[in-house]
Amino acid sequence: MTTKDFGAIETDYAFFMSHATEAKSDVEEYARKLEGFAEGRSNIHLFDFGCGTGEFSRQLLETLAWPKESLYLTLFEPVDHQQEIAAKRLSRFSDHAIASLGEASFDQRPTFDVIVSNHVLYYAENLGQTITQLLERLDSEGKMLLALAGHENALIKLWKVGFDLLNQPIPYFVAEDVEAVLATHDVCVSKSPSNYQLRFPDNEENRWKILRFLFGDYLRQIPRKEILQQFDQYVQEDQIEINTFSEHFIVQLNPRA
Ligand SMILES: C[S@@+](CC[C@H](N)C(=O)[O-])C[C@H]1O[C@@H](n2cnc3c(N)ncnc32)[C@H](O)[C@@H]1O
């Protein structure tokens, strides 16, 4: 599938993050799923795949409040400067050096107790291979937490309209694709919806920021008027208000863990 450069749309993604309750809902859902996980463990190795600037994991680790001496963090993010920002931002949650995928420290620690990949797998080049590789890195007693939106999500519906206007299928994966790939593995998967709201002052510039975040480079080819109009259905007085949901997947190799 197509890659997407989040370096080029950094401020648009930040606009989305600061006007949506998505991260807060995702954190609450993950924290529920990880309740009690730290009890009795002297070491927890957590891997954040597609960490961006680490803002999401900052909120998650603040909520989890796991002991700094127990927590080891490994990050992977294709936008190099974002990974550097993430490593600085998250360093206060661990007494240990933050590792990145591919470093010796990663090779010495082949499996992780927790793998988090929050709204990332849309952009995998090969979803089947990526999920297989992540599962190979999951400890037998560990948990992998994935969030993605599916076809019923309002923003995925915007993708559908935009890519229909370009006469092409959505070039990214969605929650239903992840669910189908997970079903081919011998793992225990539980799925739950997480509701959130996107709300921002309604003007063309703000609509365009969300569209740039969603479509990246494709946006310049999409008929401007038609795609901007898609927000009309969400107008509430002077705001755009979108209430929608994503899917959360908790994946375990051993369901008793
Ligand atoms: C929607 S952002 C989510 C960032 C962060 N996980 C969060 O929740 O805020 C998607 C992230 O996935 C990263 N990404 C894109 N393609 C990727 C790939 N093939 N493998 C891993 N990460 C990727 C992007 O650079 C971006 O930081």
SSE topology sketch:
Blueprint: H1 10-19, H2 22-33, E1 44-49, H3 55-64, E2 71-76, H4 80-90, E3 99-100, H5 104-108, E4 112-118, H6 127-136, E5 138-148, H7 154-165, H8 175-182, E6 188-201, H9 204-215, H10 224-229, E7 235-236, E8 239-252
Parallel strand pairs: 1-2, 1-4, 2-3, 4-5
Antiparallel strand pairs: 5-8, 6-8, 7-8
Helix pairs in contact: 1-9, 2-3
The structure holds S-adenosylmethionine.
CATH class: Alpha Beta
Strand content: 15-25%
- What is the H/E string? HHEHEHEHEHEHHEHHEE
Instruction: Tell me which CATH architecture applies here.
Output: 3-Layer(aba) Sandwich
Distance from N terminus to C terminus (CA atoms, Å) equals 34 Å
Organism: Blastopirellula marina
Protein name: Methyltransferase domain-containing protein
Pfam families: Methyltransf_23
InterPro entries: SAM-dependent_MTases_sf
